[in-house]
Amino acid sequence: MRIPCPYCGPRDSSEFAYLGDAAPRRPADGDAAAMATYVYLRDNPAGPMEELWYHAYGCRAWLVVRRDTRDHAVTGARLAAGREASA
Amino acid sequence: MSSHRLGTGGLVDRQTPIGFSFDGRPLTGLAGDTLASALVANGIRLVGRSFKYHRPRGIVSAGPEEPNALVEKGRGAYREPNTRATTVELYPGLDVASQNRWPSLRFDVQAIGQLASPLLAAGFYYKTFMWPAALWERLYEPAIRRAAGLGSLSGAPDPDFYEKAYAFCDLLVIGAGPAGLAAALTAGRAGARVILLEQDFALGGRLLAERCEIDGMPGAVWAREVEAELATLANVRILSRTAAFGLYDGEVGAVERLTDHLAVTPACMPRQRLWTLVAAQTVLAAGAVERPIVFGGNDRPGIMLASAMRSYIQRFAALPGRSVAVFTATDDGWRTAEAFARAGAPVAAVIDSRRDIVASVRALAGDVPVFLGARVLDAIGGQSLSAIEVIGDHGRRRIAVDGLAVSGGFNPDLAMTTHLGHKPRWSETSLAFLPDALPAHLVVAGAAAGRFTLAEALADGARLGAAAAGMAGKPAAAPPAWRASDETFAVGPLFHVEGGRGKAFVDLQNDVTDKDVAQSVHEGFVSVEHLKRYTTLGMATDQGRTSNVNGLAILARLTGRTIPETGSTRARPPHGPVAIGAFAGLHTGPHFKPTRLTAGHGWAEEQGAVFVETGQWLRAQWFPRPGETDWLESVTREVQAVRSGVGICDVSTLGKIALAGPDVGVFLDRVYCNTFSTLPVGKARYGLMLREDGFVMDDGTTARFGAEDYLLSTTTVNAGKVMQHLAFCHQVLWPELDVQMVSVTEQWAQFAVAGPQSRALLQQVFGSAVDLSDAAFPYLACGAFPLGPTMARLFRISFSGERAYEIAVPAGYGDALVRALMAGGRDLGVTPYGTEALAVMRIEKGHVAGAELNGQTVARDLGLGRMMSTKKDYIGRLMAERAALNDPDRPTLVGLKPTVPGVRLRAGAHFLPIGAAASAENDQGYMTSTAFSPSLGHWIGLGLLARGPERIGEQIRAYDPIRGGDAVVEVVNPVFIDPEGNRVHG
Ligand SMILES: [Zn+2]
């Protein structure tokens, strides 16, 4: 599987570390229930999903990668740092 | 000349004889032979014994689909079992042995009466497991293990080495038969980057074995000319002896055999190379495998696929029999009759299950006896075929033969199209599974797509090669239109002949018969996936290339379904056997992972250090001196030296992350549970980092060298994890913070200088220009000072509890620094110490380390709860507030000492109330770290004990059943030495 890093170009997935679903946002208002949801609850979709990957053996950028969980087709990646702006 | 070698023809070199041996018997073949063709040329029929029943077996095919002719190649550690004779290239001195026979291939004890046969019927291992366990262990398993099997491993480490390689291209072509050559040439001429894979040592595929013409020249000549042109194209890479074994997400795996065919392996040459190939487009042109027919005794040596017989005659000039019959349901079988006639050994008969044969095909047999609408019911013979029983309009007739060519149809080699879950479809016209839905960027050409004629293969290759070149921005000129000789590929439905007396094998490699399939159905295993697992049909190393479709057809008939209704099993990579060593590549033994050495490593080696692996690092564990016989003796001396004088320890392996920018203070406040925004320039502070779920992640000190210039340290093992976490916090959570960070672990060499004499040593090294007085450089100070040609960073921090410093220089100066420190401290008796002494001193001081920072502890458990700021938000704050994590019953850090001096404590011992039974209910925690304290003269420990801090002075039991430890210990303050903390200033 290959991931198109915006900095480095298409690279082998073995260069990346996987975190998981990119959708959850860290709650800022100190709500413990919201924090528990953020920490523990994840959807498990069969289909396209946005995920966080870290280019550990490359540029060390965190990426939002769009991947289909059914066939591992990767259809895009962008820097996580800019995700709010481009979302 | 060998007994069955033809005088003319073929692609073998009669001028280059090659000596080899089979079961110790010296034989001669020719250059261009495979082991299988050399055995055929020598008239050798019997080459092995079967997996379960020890039946005599011969060569069935001429390619990688071979289920029978598996041999042990090589001797000693080089022995490779289950090697397909059809894929072994002959070389001088090749030494092979038959398998699964005792005492000899011709006389095999297990085959007499087939002793274990009743044990080995379908589903035997499920059923036998149901019997009493004792019987299984003592009787059945040993019997089955002796009876069933193929080759045996050497038991020695693999003496060869392997490597991995990656390559990228516009077009990857798998298979260099007519379709593959056409695709590679068309795309290559257009300028596309092409990689062409061929598992054989020669390019051409079926062109090497068939009488056919392309543009008026023999197929093999055309293949040679195409190969020559491809070799002139810089944008084309040909990998022969390279088998693609799997289609993965976006890449193809292939294994290249580099030395398996060489009599002498050149020095430094890997045996095999594992390729990861990334292609914009892949053309699968892997051809098709002929399908046998299931009938009584169909495993007799001498029975061979019809196309394989043509390969032996027309490619290898080796005659597989002198009086052979053809049993076919296809036009292809008739071509084999023609091949025998041309070789001067006309076939004894052609038996075709069909009645309507086109005249041009019928003519291929000449005037030999032909039986239409007929079948072979039984094959008769012992170690070699002697006769067949034919049933048809004439009734039954026995025909004496020494060989039988069988053709039941063709199975396109489409496994690679199914590796990602795509299913093929059954074609009633081709009587074969054909590719249907295809993975992205993969197309199929020629016989692999069910387009079996030469003209179709060439047209497919040209069209798909041109398309791939076009997609790569290299449009092809008008694709060449090659003229191919005519062929027909009609086929009739014939999978299984019922009613024979002999065992009728569906899967030759796993010894699965038609009766096993029937039994599976009888017992209710009617799903194709159940059939496969219950009978092991198709589960051998040949992946059922010759058996799956016949098994399905029999299952379909027994269950009254069509083949599409019955379905097909899913093929998974690897398509063929791949040595484990190839997957490991060079990552073996000490090279499994990189070894990281500190700048002071050479110096430590000179000092006689004993090293320990810490993550990827090698660290000095202790420095034995002459006369010291025990590690504890060395460690005790090192601890005493530090506590009474001065010692030096290499701490370069601690993770180091440089942070810069105006928002570093804010950032650190959010990632550490304690406060850093108040840290002044020139000061260092200990920090505790939590995970978002509230548990402790890591600890370390952060020093501030300038307004926007920080250096954060991590534990050795968590360096990568913390870097990733901080990058996450910055890039994902708070990209608005103006912070930059970079790992500088390897850029700095760092040494701890510890002990009451540490300042004196450093003053000696820095000279009087640097003021190291407590007023100028107090506890927790940090600063940068000139040292020789560079600047050294100095930190006044202590892990040992003594007055101590850490000094860091750019890694290139690390070796010089440690030598300077040793020289500067000579008069002070400076002593190098290792990680063991470091650990003893931290346990004496009650500092937590890896054993306590184990991912299951919160700050409160470690006695560090008061570090958690209440004035700010930070990672892990909310989750750490959960009631269960603040339960006083949670095991909490305490110190422990034996009530009887001299008793040794061991980490891992569990705590029980005295007198309580050793049960999980009574478990109150466990010992995390222990050490012999030279300062106190007895063993001490740290542990996590329920309600620990309330229980200082209590006696409990430290129970260690695994190592036989059982001691009464007293709960004490975890700070064993200098609890007031005076010595750090001393
Ligand atoms: Zn990158």
UniProtKB/TrEMBL annotation, chain A:
<dbReference type="Pfam" id="PF04267">
    <property type="entry name" value="SoxD"/>
</dbReference>
<dbReference type="InterPro" id="IPR006279">
    <property type="entry name" value="SoxD"/>
</dbReference>
<dbReference type="InterPro" id="IPR038561">
    <property type="entry name" value="SoxD_sf"/>
</dbReference>
<dbReference type="GO" id="GO:0046653">
    <property type="term" value="P:tetrahydrofolate metabolic process"/>
</dbReference>
<dbReference type="GO" id="GO:0008115">
    <property type="term" value="F:sarcosine oxidase activity"/>
</dbReference>
<protein>
    <submittedName>
        <fullName>Sarcosine oxidase subunit delta</fullName>
    </submittedName>
</protein>
